[in-house]
Design a protein that fits this description.
Layout (H helix, E strand, L loop, with lengths): L3 E6 L5 H10 L4 E5 L1 H4 L2 H9 L6 E5 L1 H10 L7 E5 L2 H9 L6 E6 L7 E4 L2 E3 L1 H12 L3 E4 L8 E2 L7
Parallel strand pairs: 1-4, 1-5, 2-3, 2-4, 5-8
Antiparallel strand pairs: 6-7, 8-9
Helix pairs in contact: 5-6
Length: 159
């Protein structure tokens, strides 16, 4: 049976994703949903190089990712959809995707952000996006690696 797993991670593809999540979920296809990367050939090339040749990878704008997922283009595969920000995840949901849950895996510290959990730093826009996603009934779980205990990010976000 095929499935789609959603993960917010500002690094998108890296060792933890390829070595841990892909194996744990038996992923066959990674879909990167990111406007910036979709329009940057160098970034696309780097991400493609980070994926083993046995794994399919597609890089689309957020809107195109939604369209392709809604059309059922990946229905016969286990798919990992990687999103770099909570705001991008909110767009996916508002544009018609309805995941049961979204994994939050890595949002690194930057100016204007505050750390709320290990490897999770947020700003006001992130918090607003998480609150809206949560209000739609979608579970937001923090797990850096598959063996981590699932943590509800909303317990650490103040509205």
């Amino acid at each position: 049976m095929s499935s789609v797993f959603f993960r917010i991670d500002d690094r998108l593809i890296h060792g933890v994703v390829v070595q841990s999540w892909v194996k744990a979920l038996d992923i066959e296809h990674i879909v990167v949903a990111d406007d910036r990367v979709a329009n940057d050939q160098m970034q696309k090339t780097l991400l493609i190089m980070a994926v083993p040749p046995s794994l399919k990878i597609s890089i689309f704008s957020i809107k195109e990712s939604v369209q392709r997922l809604k059309k059922g283009e990946f229905n016969n595969e286990n798919v990992l959809v990687l999103i770099s920000t909570p705001c991008d995840a909110l767009f996916l949901v508002k544009d018609g995707l309805n995941p049961v849950s979204i994994n939050v895996g890595g949002l690194h510290f930057a100016p204007g952000k505050k750390q709320i959990l290990k490897a999770i730093s947020v700003n006001d826009n992130d918090i607003d996006a998480f609150c809206q996603i949560n209000d739609m009934g979608i579970k937001l779980e923090v797990r850096i690696i598959p063996s981590d205990t699932s943590v509800d990010i909303m317990k650490y976000i103040k509205k």
